[in-house]
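User: These chains co-purify. Model them together.
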Amino acid sequence: MGDMNPGGAVVLEGSEQGFALTRVDALLGWARKYSLFAYPFVTACCGMEFMALNSPRFDLARFGAEAPRFSPRQADLLWVVGTISQRQAPALKRIYDQMMEPKWVLAFGTCASSGGFYDNYTTVPGIDKVIPVDVYVPGCPPRPEAVLDGLMLLQDKIARNERRPGVVKPRVDPPVKVAELVQLRRSAHDPSELVPRLGRGETK
Amino acid sequence: MSQAVLDKLKARFGAAILETHSDFGDDTALVDAKQWRAIGEFLRQDPACEFDLPVDLCGVDYPRRLPRMEVVLHLYSTTRRHRVRLKARVGDEDMEGAELDSLVAVWPGLNWLEREVYDMSGVRFRGHPDLRRILMYPEFVGHPLQKTYPAQRTQPLVPYRTEDEAGVPLEKQAPFGPDEGMPFGRRALPRSEES
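Assistant: Joint model of the two components:
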């Protein structure tokens, strides 16, 4: 479960029980970053990627951020997932105002971050025009890995008690080598059909 | 396929059918706006027409042509399996007289569609039971799909935070450059034509 040494605590050996020294804010930050109760404000297509993120494959529970709370009063991380229209902005503002301090906001995807390509009368050009944002995750939609990057960035900010917004850097896929690509061959049974060529040592 | 419907309309309403065409297989009749309701009732009730499904209703703005706003109604008959498209032109430069008779009494399904056309294009439907905005919020001023609505004008319900309040720059940050957004279509009409 990651860093089990809260805020660079100094553990002193020698006593029977043992004790540690740290600062209160560092200890609080360490505790908070592993118990993020999420309020998902999901409005658009990014929601599909948000569902993928919540699947076991990406295992949000590693970060202690898997528990959704459908009351903003019990949540401390507001996920804004998708396009926010001018008509929804008052609802978003009200949800944010109802959350208890300390609270954080993650802008999931390009629309929530900047309005995306909706550059018109109907869309808020980025939720930071209405509420403060801690982490921006670009992407249309962002890959779950990018969101995990954003979540770790947020945890880092919480641990350091840092409130300036951060932006997740886009990841670049490494170039694919030809040898790693699946090769196709014509099926022996039906020459019009292509089937994967089995590599050495592989069997049907 | 429904050329017969166009012929029937011309025989029945004569001069109220301003023009017809069947381009690309879509039979279309441009009709006199004053006869909108009567033609609708006829198409709904005539046994050879029997248009029971109003597929869509929309407004199209042609700001350099008068009458300016074209209201387009697509109809389909689930029993006769034919389609027809009706158009009516209303409204002068300032959308004065952009009014049509409501067809909600003929096709109840047009209720929300007429509200949408009112909301987006500003055409008022006489006799509509509940002519309110349906997509935009009640505080919204103007009709965004009119070509004279300035492309840059937004009407936020929540006042935007200023950079002083936020304490951080609110201009779009990397990787959200100022060019993020639509690369086209930001041109409104010349300023003299904006309201």
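The radius of gyration of chain A is 22 Å.
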